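re the bet — no i am not wrong, look at it urself. input seq straight from the record:
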Amino acid sequence: MTTLLVSSVAVGPVAAQVPLQSSVCDAQNLPGIIEGFFQITTSLGIMGLVVIWQADSLVDMFTLDPEQKRGLKRHKRSAMKSAVILVVLGPLYTVAGPIMGLPLAECVNLVPW
């Protein structure tokens, strides 16, 4: 009787967590919506990087002031860092999410390609 009581109390919290994880993954269209949103934002971020890079290069061709050239280089570097972070976060979440036990990581693939 004691073993049955202890096992039911010990299993209770674990059993309470299982519906939460399955309900996140079982929600209709939620994983697909999240994946699509991430792919769209990643694509827009990469296109934004290309536009910023090209615009800065064009302005750099007509700029004579060395301080403005350094500012443009800093702006290009900042845009590149932002794009790299945007592209790296999805795969990092996809790999690290299941290890950390995040419920959404089990059913959502955030790799943009």
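see?? The two ends are 55 Å apart (CA to CA). told u. also Residues 44 and 87 are 11 Å apart (CA to CA). so pay up
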